[in-house]
Amino acid sequence: SGHYETTWKIDGTKQTGTSTTLNPGEGVSKTYSIVVTTRDVVGNSDSMTYVVKIDKKKPTAGTVTMKKGSSSGEAYSNNSWTNQSVYVAKNNGSDGSGESGHSSTTWTIAGSSESGTNKTLDPGSGKYATYSIVVTTTDAVGNSASNTYTVKIDKAGPSAPGITGGSTSWATSRTISVSTASTDTGVGTVSYYQYY
Question: pLDDT (tens digit, 9 = 90+) per residue, 38-72?
């Protein structure tokens, strides 16, 4: 009998043109159902259904567990000074329901990629260091999100305050000057004591 018409619907809504661009918007993931139906002159019809999945939503970035000394140590507070080594462990991120799915979670420490899932940071005796940790999660279509952490370890002793005017000889009076300046990176307080 011959072709009569071909129509199509997107999510149940009839389309008037022959093409359209599907875009759910930034930060949104969406699945579209497209049905194309062809009818002949006497009313026979046949349909094809297509599914389009678009994911423009970032995944949930992975995290880092941080402990002082070892994996069973006290929790380390991000971006704070400690005089202990710090155990760090990567936790995978995730992607939500109805999204493209988790593809990978990677991490760098001080700019270098890490292949393992945990590491102990320790600058060594008499030294101090600051480590930047970046954890990045990527979904199946390339959206990504990151978390950044800072670990600060100080195992270097502070410089002692300077004292001038001191002497072990007897005198009726003596002027003593104490310099409280310190070159220590993570210095908290400088104390001095005067004995009579």
Answer: 999 999 999 999 999 999 999 999 999 999 999 99
Choose among 19, 50, 49, 60: nearest CA to 147: 60
Tokens of 57: 């939503």
Q: How big is the CA angle at 118 (ends 113 and 120), to the nearest 5 degrees?
A: 95
Where would I find the beta strands (DSSP E) of 56-179?
A: 63-68, 81-82, 86-91, 102-109, 112-114, 118-121, 128-139, 144-154, 162-164, 177-179
- DSSP, res 72: T
- CA distances 140 to 56, 58, 59, 99, 101, Å, are 11, 11, 10, 9, 6
Q: Which amino acid is at 133?
A: I
Task: Annotate 133-161 with b (16+ C-beta within 10 A) or e (fewer).
Answer: bbbbbbbebebbbbbebebbbbbbeeeee
| pLDDT tens for each residue of 14-43 | 999 999 999 999 999 999 999 999 999 999
Which is more confidently placed, 26 or 177?
26
Residue 183 token pair: 């070159």
Please identify which residue in the block is written with the tokens 């069973």: 72
